[in-house]
Amino acid sequence: MSLRADPRGPGLHLAEDVVIGERVAFGAGVTIHAGTVIGGDCVIEDGVVLGKRPRLAPHSNASRDELTGLVLGTAVTVCAGAVVFAGAIVEDGAILGDQCSVRERAKIGAGAVIGRGSVVDPGVSVGARARVQTNVYLTAGSLIEQDVFVGPGVVTTNDNTMARHAKSYELRGATLRRACRIGGGAVLVPGVEVGEEAYVAAGAVVTSDVPARAVVMGVPARVVRSVEDEELLEHWR
Question: What is the pTM of this model?
Fold first, then answer.
């Protein structure tokens, strides 16, 4: 891991093959690893680490294939203390909040927001304009479509055995369809799907699939009504 100091930012250190676009602003103490590509007009705040390689435990089922570099689109903001791994893709205009972690092979869509301290696991896809609030955990294998809202402290899970399974066991994350809303502190068990424009109340424990436009609440979550027409995203653009 060969890094060199660069005068474009105070305490900026980067690998030889890093590509940096025009008008990129750097805070203090930024580290950029090999293969990273940064588009124009990005803002990289204090203490950010870009292009970090994962260090996997011997028992990990994660892929050990060679990773490509990290790619940031144009006008991306990476806030203080965030760590974005090699192999991730962050599209134009996305914002990654303070101290969040975006792991290898994750994709963050254009205009999406990842809140402070949230974790986006390997291979997770977050759609355009999705809003992921503070301290959210998006587990590996999850799909978050465009315009989804994920409230603070939401936890998704992908392993019903809690690590007591054969290597062939398939981890199954959550699927959150377009414009659904997940209330703060909700927990989603492995493999559940929340339908388009559905609403999961705060603190709910989702143990089965949620139909499109359903409102669910409770432990376990149960359907209590449907989302009204005036609540649909098209009326709140």
Answer: 0.95
